[in-house]
UniProtKB/TrEMBL annotation:
<dbReference type="InterPro" id="IPR051598">
    <property type="entry name" value="TSUP/Inactive_protease-like"/>
</dbReference>
<feature type="transmembrane region" description="Helical">
    <location>
        <begin position="54"/>
        <end position="74"/>
    </location>
</feature>
<keyword id="KW-1003">Cell membrane</keyword>
<comment type="similarity">
    <text>Belongs to the 4-toluene sulfonate uptake permease (TSUP) (TC 2.A.102) family.</text>
</comment>
<feature type="transmembrane region" description="Helical">
    <location>
        <begin position="160"/>
        <end position="177"/>
    </location>
</feature>
<dbReference type="GO" id="GO:0005886">
    <property type="term" value="C:plasma membrane"/>
</dbReference>
<feature type="transmembrane region" description="Helical">
    <location>
        <begin position="281"/>
        <end position="299"/>
    </location>
</feature>
<feature type="transmembrane region" description="Helical">
    <location>
        <begin position="94"/>
        <end position="117"/>
    </location>
</feature>
<keyword id="KW-0472">Membrane</keyword>
<keyword id="KW-1133">Transmembrane helix</keyword>
<feature type="transmembrane region" description="Helical">
    <location>
        <begin position="189"/>
        <end position="208"/>
    </location>
</feature>
<feature type="transmembrane region" description="Helical">
    <location>
        <begin position="23"/>
        <end position="42"/>
    </location>
</feature>
<dbReference type="InterPro" id="IPR002781">
    <property type="entry name" value="TM_pro_TauE-like"/>
</dbReference>
<feature type="transmembrane region" description="Helical">
    <location>
        <begin position="129"/>
        <end position="148"/>
    </location>
</feature>
<protein>
    <recommendedName>
        <fullName>Probable membrane transporter protein</fullName>
    </recommendedName>
</protein>
<dbReference type="Pfam" id="PF01925">
    <property type="entry name" value="TauE"/>
</dbReference>
<feature type="transmembrane region" description="Helical">
    <location>
        <begin position="254"/>
        <end position="275"/>
    </location>
</feature>
Length: 302
C-alpha cells in the first residue's frame, strides 16, 4: 500500500514538473517579446503614427510578408535557411545589408519564438542540446551584430555577403546529397555555436546551415536536431536583434513587419511538416534558389 502511495506521489510530482517546464516554454518568449514591444514603443513611437502605418501597407510590404512566409516554411521544415533565404531575397530587392540583417534578426525574435513553441508542442526538442547551444551562440551573435552595426560598412561587404550566401547554399546541397553517417560524439559544440551565431549576424543568416547541418552530418537525429537548433535560435536572434536595435535603430519597419507577420503565420506549419516533406529534394531546391538570388545580387553590384 505504501509503495503504491509513493509511486502515485512520484508520478504526480513528475507531472507537475513537466507542466511547470512546459509553461516556461511559453512564459519566457512571451515575457521577452512584451519587453521588446515596450522598448520599441518607448524609443520609436513617433515613427508609428496611424497615418504612417496606413501609408506603409504598400505592395512592397506584402512582398516582404510573402518572403517571411516562405523563409519560415524553409527554416521550420529543414531546420535552416530562414536568414539565408530572406537575406538573399532582400538583397536582390535592393535592401542594404545592415537594414536587411536588422530586419531579419528582429523578425526572427518573433518567428523563432513561435517556432520554438511549435516544436515544443510537437515534441521535437532535445532540451540538453538546446541549452548547450544558447550561451555560446548568443556571444557570437552579439559580437557579429555589433561589428556590422558600428564597425563594418554594410554596403562595402554586400558582394561578400552574396558570396557567403552561395557558400551556405553549397553547404546545404552537399549535406542533402551526402549519405547519412553513423552518429559521432559532438565535439567543440560551444565553438560551433559561437561561429554560427557570429556568421548569422554578420551575413544575415547561417545559424541553421552551419549548426544544424554540422550536427546532422555527425549522425544526429534530424527531427530533434532541427527542433533544438530552432529553439536555441530564439535566444541567438533575440540577442543579435537587441544589439542591432541599440546600435542601428529601426529603419524600414515595413521590411521588419512583413517578415514578422509572414514568419509567425508559417511557423506552426513548418513544425507540422517537418517529417512530411521529402528532406533531400527540398534542401537541394532551396540551395539552388539561394545561389540564383545571390548571383543576381552580384550581377547587379558589378
Amino acid at each position: 500500500m505504501l509503495s503504491k502511495i509513493l509511486m502515485a506521489s512520484a508520478k504526480n510530482s513528475s507531472s507537475k514538473a513537466l507542466v511547470s517546464n512546459t509553461h516556461w516554454w511559453y512564459i519566457i518568449p512571451g515575457f521577452l517579446l512584451i519587453g521588446l514591444f515596450s522598448v520599441i514603443y518607448y524609443n520609436y513611437s513617433s515613427q508609428f503614427s496611424f497615418s504612417k502605418i496606413v501609408n506603409g501597407f504598400t505592395s512592397e510590404f506584402f512582398v516582404f510578408l510573402i518572403i517571411g512566409v516562405f523563409a519560415q516554411l524553409v527554416d521550420g521544415t529543414l531546420g535552416m535557411g530562414y536568414g539565408a533565404t530572406s537575406t538573399s531575397f532582400l538583397l536582390s530587392f535592393g535592401v542594404p545589408p545592415a537594414i536587411s540583417s536588422t530586419a531579419v534578426h528582429v523578425s526572427e525574435m518573433f518567428t523563432t519564438g513561435a517556432s520554438a513553441i511549435s516544436h515544443h508542442k510537437f515534441g521535437n526538442i532535445n532540451r540538453k542540446l538546446a541549452k548547450m547551444l544558447i550561451i555560446p551562440g548568443v556571444i557570437g551573435s552579439i559580437i557579429g551584430a555589433y561589428l556590422l552595426s558600428d564597425v563594418i560598412d554594410g554596403n562595402a561587404i554586400k558582394p561578400y555577403i552574396a558570396i557567403y550566401m552561395i557558400i551556405l547554399a553549397i553547404v546545404i546541397i552537399v549535406k542533402a546529397v551526402r549519405k547519412k553517417r553513423p552518429k559521432k560524439p559532438t565535439k567543440q559544440l560551444g565553438l560551433l555555436a559561437i561561429f554560427g551565431g557570429f556568421m548569422d549576424s554578420v551575413g544575415g543568416g547561417g545559424w541553421g546551415p552551419i549548426v544544424t547541418s554540422t550536427l546532422i552530418g555527425r549522425g544526429r537525429d534530424p527531427r530533434y536536431t532541427i527542433g533544438s537548433v530552432n529553439a536555441a535560435e530564439f535566444a541567438i536572434s533575440f540577442a543579435s536583434g537587441i544589439t542591432f536595435l541599440l546600435f542601428q535603430g529601426i529603419h524600414g519597419w515595413q521590411v521588419i513587419a512583413g517578415l514578422i507577420l509572414g514568419g509567425v503565420i508559417a511557423a506552426p506549419l513548418g513544425a507540422y511538416f517537418i517529417n512530411k516533406i521529402p528532406r533531400k529534394p527540398a534542401m537541394v531546391a532551396v540551395g539552388l534558389m539561394i545561389i540564383f538570388l545571390s548571383l543576381r545580387t552580384l550581377v547587379k553590384w558589378f
